[in-house]
Amino acid sequence: MREIPILVVEDEVAICEMLHLALSKAGFSVEVATDVRQARRLLFNRPPSLILLDWMLPEISGIEFAKQLKKDAQTKLIPIIMLTAKGEETDKIKGLEVGADDYITKPFSPRELVARMKAVLRRTSPFLEDEHLVVENLRLDLAKHRVEIAEKEVSIGPTEFRLLQFFMQHPERVYSRNQVLDQVWGNNVYIEERTVDVHIRRLRKALAEHGYDHFVQTVRGVGYRFSTRPSL
Ligand code: CA
């Protein structure tokens, strides 16, 4: 878990300090924003691997911000844990409905929070190690936007990089072309589904040189899947 970047969005200074201390001690690299505007700036400078987001924030609420983040192709894959004083079941459902990955009610112990964060990171990114996604000899560097196989850089276009990142973050699940378009290109863009096939082909070609193209599998009649198991 060393150096995994975490963004905390919380307006209460005492909680920010507590989180900064506890999470740094747990080996995370922590940045703190006290409002949404500051959070946006930090977010685009250095995309975090997880966001801890307070529900009650000045100006724009945490729930509204979560909704915006989950609509934006650039940020939708970043997992969010909502922090809140509200323990109401309906609020919890509301948080999960806008796409939050988990929910923790104040007051919480740092140890409980860290355990929940690790669980979310494992669930959303089973291949995550530091700032890399790693499967066998295939390494995708999230910070440097590089792909390496057996320590040699693979030449890969920006779309293929995003495709590979999406697949490595969501392994063993089948996605239709439409879902891939939505996740990788964003849902406001009109692109033909065939475009997905073109980029899948390019991605496979880049991986094939090193024999890793079999990770990107076609599921006939459904779509695509990233899997380390042999396709049937
Ligand atoms: Ca607050």
List the helices and strands and how they pair.
Blueprint (H helix, E strand, L loop, with lengths): L3 E6 L3 H13 L2 E6 L2 H10 L4 E5 L7 H10 L8 E5 L4 H9 L4 E4 L4 H15 L3 E2 L2 E4 L2 E4 L4 E4 L2 E3 L3 H12 L4 E2 L1 H9 L7 H16 L7 E4 L3 E4 L6
Parallel strand pairs: 1-2, 1-3, 3-4, 4-5
Antiparallel strand pairs: 6-7, 7-8, 8-9, 9-10, 11-13, 12-13
The structure holds calcium ion.
Entry keywords:
single chain, 232 residues, alpha/beta, Rossmann fold, Arc Repressor Mutant, subunit A, 2 domains, five-stranded parallel beta sheet, five-stranded antiparallel beta sheet, binds calcium ion
Oligomer designation: single chain
* Bound compounds: calcium ion
- Classified in CATH, the superfamily of the largest domain is Response regulator
Q: Tell me the major beta sheet.
A: 5 strands, parallel
Order of helices and strands: EHEHEHEHEHEEEEEHEHHEE
**Beta strand count:** 13
CATH class of the largest domain: Alpha Beta
Largest sheet: spatial strand order: 2-1-3-4-5
Q: Count of DSSP helices?
A: 8
Distance between the termini: 34 Å
Q: What is the structural class?
A: alpha/beta
Strand content: 15-25%
Q: Segments where pLDDT lies below 50 for 5+ residues?
A: none
What does this structure look like?
The chain has two domains: 4-129, 3-Layer(aba) Sandwich (Rossmann fold), CATH 3.40.50; 131-226, Winged helix-like DNA-binding domain superfamily/Winged helix DNA-binding domain (Arc Repressor Mutant, subunit A), CATH 1.10.10. It is built from eight helices and 13 strands. It has helices at 13-25, 36-45, 62-71, 89-97, 110-124, 158-169, 177-185, 193-208; strands at residues 4-9, 28-33, 50-54, 80-84, 102-105, 128-129, 132-135, 138-141, 146-149, 152-154, 174-175, 216-219, 223-226. Strands 2-1-3-4-5 form a five-stranded parallel sheet, sandwiched between helices. Helix 7 (177-185) packs across helix 8 (193-208). The longest helix is centred in the C-terminal third of the chain and has 16 residues, at 193-208. It is globular, with a radius of gyration of 18 Å. Calcium ion (CA) is lined by residues 11-12, 54, 56-57.
